[in-house]
Amino acid sequence: MLKQLLRCTAVVATGLLLTSQGLLTSQAMAAGILRYATIGEPPSLDTQMSTATIVGTIGEHMFETLYAFDSKYKPQPLLAAGERLEDGGRKLVIALRQGVKFHTGEEMTSADVVASLKRWGEFGARGSLLMKNAVSLSATAKYEVTLVLSEPNGAWKNLLAYPEGGPVIYPAAIVSAAGNKPLGPQDYVGTGPYKFGEWRPNRYVELTRFDGYSSRSEPGDGYAGARKVNFDAIRFIPVPDVGTRVSGVQAGDYDYAEFISGDLYDTLKSDSAITIHRNGAPLFGLFFVNSKSGILKENFALRRAIQTAFKEEEALRVSFGPKSLWEANGALYPAGNPWYTEAGVQQSYNIGNAAKARQMAKDAGYDGAPIRLLVSTNYQAHFDQATVFTKQLADAGINVQMMVVDWATLLKMRGQAEQWDIFVTHHGFVPDPILITFMNESYPGWWNTPEKAKLTAAFTATADPAAREKIWAELQALFYEQVPAIKVGNAYSYDIASKKLKGMGDSTVMWPHFWNVSY
Q1: What domain count does the chain have?
Q2: C or N terminus of the chain, fewer CB within 10 Å?
Q3: Domain presence at residue 515
């Protein structure tokens, strides 16, 4: 990888010499424009409909939720002004801020919030987790909405605060007409500090400053509080090759670059031209199993055989490099977190026993048929892990057919159950387990067994922390019994930025954001 980086740097350097006059002109034109090198193109910017990190990272600058997480992962009012709970938590009355403008100049009212929540609840990536128990949702005043649930939901505020696949607020006229179809660029209208500018495919997505933005007055804290705009625009530029992302920041072509590979970490730490931004909490790779179609549908025994063949520690070492960047731990939350539990882990995680896995697969009725593994090279760690696991499964006599596509294609294909058996992704830290994607029965993988449904209903029906922690331990044990996905391990991803960026801190809470940031 280092040789690849040096080659890429040499190419960039040559290009700089050959086109220096053009680049100087380009840089002058880019004054006031923050340039962010992404892993690739987003499939859409309709935040309600996608859990893709790239969609959420761009979308959070345009679209806002009723609540937002502070730096301690506590939800605070954002578009909401406050709330009260009635009827034992079954009735949620949410007051809205007044004077908040959409990018069109129109004021946000309860009609917009109701329409947005209804669409999210019916079609959104995480909407059913709250809205499937909705008895009614109504605009009870111009700046007030009331949601009545059949049962209390102890995670309601966390669900309303999480923007990735979350209930961002759009104008009622736009969202009511959209239905289950992703919004197009002409409808990217929100209340955020930046508004949609243009999308030039394979070149960039540009957001521009929204001069009519209505910021909160509290000090900025995580994603909560004031959001001050200091750039004229942000350009999100697709740069699939990690070496090119790195050399671009080093050369001053980009101000920020995401998802840098672990084998470059030690070298980049000593580079005086850049700043490393580690994620504040670990992400974890997930190999999602198809519960709707194909050879692994409902065959929990074969899934456990695959899990037994995996030696996750080897995949982490290859994909993330230095031991300081990863931890082979199968618990779905890191040690020290209230949700941490070892339930189901010891007998299932990091086993790497090929002979045992071979026998388990035979007992499960496996006949050598190919298992289709869908993976992208845009995230190098995904590809590295898939390569390691394919070899481990081959040693256990399990035939894996890797299908390698770009990230945008994978995001489309994973929604088509007949196209794959396992797909590779990763998951960032979430403050509440209900936000983990496999908890949503409509997320690709489609884990929806009676045992899971029963535990999930109990988990959301109470706000008591001790009761929820106990039920979560049972859910994690079920995760290892039914294997809707396979966790790779904890990894601290990192991005890099130009030294001239100020106000970002040393790490991100969940995703990078560029309000309250300046040169």
Answers
A1: 3
A2: C
A3: no
Domain that holds residue 335: 283-491
Final residue of a domain: which of 148, 170, 192? 170
Are residue 484 and residue 501 in the same domain, yes or no?
no
Supply the pLDDT for residue 21: 31
CA distance 82 to 478: 37
The verdict on 46 and 189 lying in the same domain is yes
CB 36 within 8 Å of CB 255: yes
pTM of the model: 0.85
User: Over 233-246, what HEC string results?
Assistant: EEEEEECCCHHHHH
Q: Whole-angstrom Cα distance, residue 408 to residue 185?
A: 17
CATH number at residue 35: 3.40.190.10
Rounded to 5 degrees, what angle do the CA atoms 314, 315, 317 make? 65
Task: Read off the pLDDT of residues 366-413 as tens digits, 9 standing for 90 and up.
Answer: 999 999 999 999 999 999 999 999 999 999 999 999 999 999 999 999
Environment class of 157 (CB within 10 Å of its CB; exposed 0-12, middle 13-18, buried 19+):
buried
Residues 44 and 188 in one domain: yes
Three-state secondary-structure class, residue 340: coil
Angle formed by the axes of helices 354-363 and 380-395, nearest 10°: 80
DSSP-based three-state secondary structure for 457: helix
Give the whole-angstrom CA distance, residue 395 versus residue 393. 5
pLDDT of residue 90: 95
pLDDT digits over 57-81, tens only?
Answer: 999 999 999 999 999 899 999 999 9
How far apart (Å, rounded) are the C-alpha atoms in residues 96 and 79? Answer: 6
Question: Is residue 294 domain-shared with residue 270, that is, in the same domain?
Answer: no
Cα dihedral 35, 36, 40, 46 in deg (nearest 10)? -100
Q: Which residues pair with 137 in a beta bridge?
A: 147
Q: Is residue 115 part of a domain?
A: yes
| pLDDT at residue number 507 | 61
Q: Which of 32-36, 256-260, 506-510 has the lowest mean pLDDT?
A: 506-510
**Does 16 fall in a domain?**
no
Residue 506's pLDDT is 63
